[in-house]
Amino acid sequence: MKSQQKCIMIFALVCCFAVLVALIFSAVDVWGEDLDGITEENCNKNCRVVLVENIPEDISYFDNGTAHLPLSVGLYNLLDKAIRVVEIVSPLWLLNSSDYESSFQPAAKQGRALLSRLQGLKARGVQLKISSGMVDSTELRMLAIHGAEVHYVNMTALTKGHLLSSFWVVDRRHIYIGSASMDWRSLATRKELGVMVYNCSCLALDLHRVFSLYWGLQYRDFIPSFWSKRLFALFNKHKPLELTLNSTKARAYISSSPDVFIPKDRSNDLEAISWVIQEARHFIYISIIDYLPLVSSSALKYWSRIDGLIREALILRKVRVRLLISCWEKTQPLTFNFIWSLRSLCMEQANCSLEAVSTRSHCTTVFTTLETHFISPCCTSCVSVCVCVCVRRSSSTPECRGMAVSRE
Ligand SMILES: *[C@@H]1O[C@H](CO)[C@@H](O)[C@H](O)[C@H]1NC(C)=O
Ligand SMILES: *[C@@H]1O[C@H](CO)[C@@H](O)[C@H](O)[C@H]1NC(C)=O
Ligand SMILES: *[C@@H]1O[C@H](CO)[C@@H](O)[C@H](O)[C@H]1NC(C)=O
Ligand SMILES: *[C@@H]1O[C@H](CO)[C@@H](O)[C@H](O)[C@H]1NC(C)=O
Ligand SMILES: *[C@@H]1O[C@H](CO)[C@@H](O)[C@H](O)[C@H]1NC(C)=O
Ligand SMILES: *[C@@H]1O[C@H](CO)[C@@H](O)[C@H](O)[C@H]1NC(C)=O
Predict the structure, then answer these.
(1) Is residue 5 classed exposed, middle or buried when 0-12, 13-18 and 19+ CB atoms within 10 A define those classes?
(2) Ligand 3 in contact with 143 (CB < 6 A)?
(3) Which of 72, 112, 116, 114 is nearest to 96 (CA)?
(4) Which of 33, 65, 71, 222 lies at a C-alpha separation of 20 to 30 Å from 212?
(5) Of the ligands numbered here, which is closest to the C-alpha atom of 146?
(6) Would the CB of 353 count as within 6 Å of ligand 6?
(7) What's the gap in Å between 330 CA and the centre of ligand 3?
(8) Is the dihedral of CA 28, 256, 196, 132 positive or negative?
(9) Which residue's CA is the closest to the ligand 6 atom numbered 6?
(10) Where along the chain do the CATH 3.30.870.10 domains lie?
(11) 59-60 β-sheet, strand order
């Protein structure tokens, strides 16, 4: 009986100790957030947004469409604003083009310029923190020599996947999220789109939490079953941040995936995308590399969640859908069958509008068979919103391949 009481007492003491330790740690968490005085309570929601893009060098438009700020200029602006710390997540680090690559791609020098700006941060007293899934990168080693802190996330061990996120957080005030990775091709030869949000510490604080999650996974080979409170999402689908973007009222939250990487309260990407599609009343414009309702892990699997939602929007809600899809050597030929089936769905349907266009000319073999069926009808039936793009073949003079790029 006595020893049982003793046991209970020791157990209670251990519990108290555990609670104490937990409290201390959560206090540390709070202090960590507080370092630069930006908290959830005093953060800024009065934000400025700038769209940035990269248009491949060899594509020229015939229209007078508004060009957004070039991606490289946007990134330089962001670096110029940095005072304390720049945090970067990128799937690739290939900014330094080889001399051979630079010789026939003049814009490749943009990558080198960005790299040297990043190397120059330390001299300005700005910390550079990088989370990367690339284990063996000469570029990251070089940046580390110039004062960058690089944390390696072993995705093979954690999810057997890849780190594909691409974003910057600057001083927990400004952010960049976009399709571009830290690859010179993203600044020269690829179509990229991104968004810079300035003076937006509320959103930056939340994105910083995503960064911190990656940062903390350095050299881990398992995913923790409990995440620190400091990584919980501040905003989500059900409780978005109410902010102003260029004086316009807006709502925003940051989603993430996969689910095993999601601490409490964060919405996952699929939820977020589904919600955006389901809420659309007038139009859905999508710019994406591949449009393919398939996933290939070991074998191909049919995965039609998003495709299904788009069909529903087209047929039931008469939402206008436009797809801007990449077309290159690696485009899966089935892509065109799926797009064709989407288009068929709209045939002879009043107010059903699906336009699908592609940005590149490189997929010669796939396109030759499709030109007559798929590309040309789009071009000929376009009324004012689509323009045909002249595409320069490597050798010959520019010729119109009948591809269209939608621009407002
Ligand atoms: C927001 O305002 C800034 C200037 O303050 C401008 O450069 C930017 O293009 C605007 N963004 C949008 C989406 O209109
Ligand atoms: C572009 O602007 C010029 C002059 O302002 C006009 O003549 C031309 O039709 C415009 N092109 C398009 C595609 O809007
Ligand atoms: C970039 O590449 C050039 C030539 O390949 C090399 O001389 C230079 O040291 C590289 N710079 C960095 C920062 O890796
Ligand atoms: C990453 O994890 C895999 C699987 O656990 C392991 O084989 C590999 O050595 C790890 N890589 C690094 C750089 O630690
Ligand atoms: C950022 O927001 C603060 C507070 O609203 C404002 O005082 C400041 O001028 C803004 N800075 C920029 C660069 O927009
Ligand atoms: C199509 O749209 C027009 C104009 O918005 C509308 O008047 C018409 O009723 C719609 N037709 C159908 C079948 O929804």
Answers:
(1) exposed
(2) no
(3) 112
(4) 71
(5) 3
(6) no
(7) 29
(8) positive
(9) 351
(10) 34-60+67-246
(11) 59-60, 386-391, 399-406
Q: Which atom of ligand 1 is nearest to the CA of 48?
A: 1
Instruction: Please name the residue ranges forming H helices in 200-333.
Output: 201-216, 269-279, 305-316
DSSP state letter for 51:
E
Return the pLDDT at 78. 96
Confidence of residue 194 (pLDDT cuts 50, 70, 90): very high
pLDDT-derived band of residue 331, with 50, 70 and 90 as boundaries?
A: confident
In the numeric block, the tokens 């091709």 are attached to 185
Whether the Cβ atoms of residue 390 and residue 358 lie closer than 8 Å to each other: no
Global pTM reads 0.80
Cα angle: 216, vertex 111, 187; to 5 degrees: 95
On the question of pLDDT at 69 being above 70, the answer is yes
- What per-residue confidence (pLDDT) applies to 282? 93
Ligand nearest to the CA of 38: 5
Which atom of ligand 4 lies closest to the CA of 219?
A: 14
Closest CA to 347 of 324, 381, 370, 372: 381
Q: Does domain 34-60+67-246 have CATH number 3.30.870.10?
A: yes
Q: Which residues of 69-108 are buried (b: 16+ CB within 10 A; e: fewer)?
A: ebbbebbebbbeebeebbbbbbbbbbbbbeeebbeebebb
